[in-house]
Amino acid sequence: MAVPKRKTSKSKRDSRRAANSKMVATGFVKCPQCHEPKLSHRVCPDCGHYKGKEVVAQ
């Protein structure tokens, strides 16, 4: 069975875990109509517009 030769230091362990916290959610853009954040290529949930047209009546 494999056994570590040395104890992993706290800084080494924490810097390895810190890489996951740097990830950010992508794909959010501002709606051109109401300027609220929305997912790209989707109807805005606040105003119901898509590509400058009202798709969902509010």
Automatic annotation (TrEMBL):
Transmembrane segments: none annotated. Residues 1-15 have a biased composition (Basic residues). Residues 1-21 are annotated as: Disordered. Pfam families: Ribosomal_L32p. Gene3D superfamilies: Single helix bin (1.20.5.640). GO terms for biological process: translation. The keyword Ribonucleoprotein applies. Keywords: Ribonucleoprotein, Ribosomal protein. Belongs to the bacterial ribosomal protein bL32 family. This is Large ribosomal subunit protein bL32.
